Please model this.
Amino acid sequence: MAEERQYWLMKSEPSSFSIDDLGKAPAKTTHWDGVRNYMARNFMRQMRVGDRVLFYHSSADPPAIVGIARVVREAYPDHTSFDPKDRHFDPRSTPAKPYWYMVDIKLEKKFKSALALPALRQVKKLIGMELLRKGSRLSVQPVRPAEWDVIMTLATKSGGK
DNA sequence: GCCAACGTTGGC
DNA sequence: GCCAACGTTGGC
Model:
């Protein structure tokens, strides 16, 4: 039985890794390392190849959804957690018993104009979206299909394609 | 740069 | 198992 495609949102600070960086990466693909939050990790482990991802720029001016990516590899151990010199090192995580995971995502498209957070807050149909919840900090979060559809419509209207 | 909101840690 | 203290995230 084929599972339904799932939708997600992943945050990145453009000063450390932007959607343009993803576009310039080999095969427009990157591994999403460095996640050190249980809920975010668990969501990544639920991801399946083909799932769609909203790429979000946090700590940006303005913060915005800037495009779409696709999951191309399902969760596998985040090697940066094994490296004592890495800032994301975690001694609880070992190759034999990994604690942290990452997925690979590939850029699908960058919106022609970003969907800025203040504008998203004005959209009635998006009230209740995790991203817009006060105090929401989850860096990897699920997106409801209805929310996805609304966002695709907004992206098209504002010139995205 | 500030600070609210949150997750995590550790003392008890 | 509670909860205060701490570190981090991320909007503003």
Residues 37-39, 134-137 of chain A lie near DNA strand B (CB under 10 Å from a C1'). Residues 19 and 111 of chain A are 10 Å apart (CA to CA). The mean pLDDT of chain A is 93.
